C-alpha cells in the first residue's frame, strides 16, 4: 500500500518511544521507505540499532555525524519525504517546533520538510494541559501540522489521565490517511451501508443474516483514504469501526431505511453493501406460531426496499451502487436488479463460489454497469473495494 512512499518518524525522549519500533515495523511491511530521526534523549529509552534493523536505514541522531555518505542529510531527507510523524512528541520538542527552533537533527529535519507533518503528543497530564503547551499545539495547527489527540489511561508517572501515546494502529491510520492514496475523491460525500440487520421476534429472539460487514467497511475506509467525506450506516458487527468515518449504528432494516433515506439527498455516491433482511417478523402471539416437524414457522412482512427507493428518488449526478448476492443465475438476476432499481452499478457475487460472500476476508465479484461487465479474480476485500471505487469514478467521469 505504501510502496514508493517515504515516511520520517521523529522520536523524542519519552518512555513511549519503544512503541515506535512496532510502528516502524508495520510501515516497513507495507513496503514504505522508513527513516527514523531521534533526539539524543530518545536514545536513553530505545537504541537506534533497533530502528536500523527494522527499516534498513541509518537512524539519524547527531546533526554533525560524519558517518554517512556526504550530503546535507536533514535537507536531503526532507526533500524525499511524503510525510513526517513526530511521535512521541514531548512538550520540549513541541515548543521547539512551534517556534522554529532547530538545534538538533529532529527539529532541523522537521523545519526543512514541506510535506504533511503529524504530531502525536505524549507527556504527563498536567504538562499537556499547561496553557503554554496548549498554545504551542495551537501554533502548530496554525502552521498546518495535524495533531493526534493523546489517549487516556495510566501514565508512566502512575497518574491516570490524558497524555498516553495512542496505539500504533492509530498512528499508522493517520499516516495512511495522509499518503496512502491520491485524493481523487476529495470533496465527495459518500454514504455506505454495511453489516447485517436484526429483526426482533420477541424480547429474546431475532432474525438476522451472516453478513460480517467486512466488504462495506473496506469500501468506507478506502473512500476515506481517497479524501471523501464518508458516512457509514452499519448494523452490529464484530470488526472495528473505520477511523475518520462518520459511523451511524442501526439494528433493524427500518432503522437503516430511515437513516439512509434521510441523508440521501446530500450524497454524491451511495453504496448499499449491507445485507438487509427482505422480511421482518409480522405481529403475532405465541399461540399463533405454527409448528411443523419441530420447526417454528414465523409469519413475515416484507420490508421496504432501500435501493428501489433510492433509485426512484435519485437526484441528478448522484451515483447509486448496489450489491447482489446470488446462488444461481448471478449475472441475469443482477442485471435485472440494475435496471429495475435504476442503479448506476451493481456488484455481484455468487455465494457458492469459494472465497466469496459472508465472513471471509476475500471476495470474487463482477462489476456490472449499463454498458459492461467486469469480472475480477479472487482478491482481498480491501483490494476489491479499491477496484469498485476506481470503476465508480470512471463511470462518473463519463
Structural class: alpha/beta
Tell me the span between the first and last alpha carbons.
28 Å
Percent in strands: 15-25%
CATH topology of the largest domain: Rossmann fold
Shape: elongated
Which percent bin holds the helix content?
25-40%
Find the count of extended strands (DSSP E, 2+ residues).
Answer: 23
Gross CATH architecture of the largest domain? 3-Layer(aba) Sandwich
Strand order of the largest sheet: 12-11-8-13-18-19-21-22
Biggest beta sheet attributes:
8 strands, mixed
Q: Which consecutive residue ranges, at least 5 long each, have pLDDT under 50?
A: 287-293
Report the CATH superfamily of the largest domain. Answer: CoaB-like
Classified by CATH, the class of the largest domain is Alpha Beta
Compute the number of helices. 13
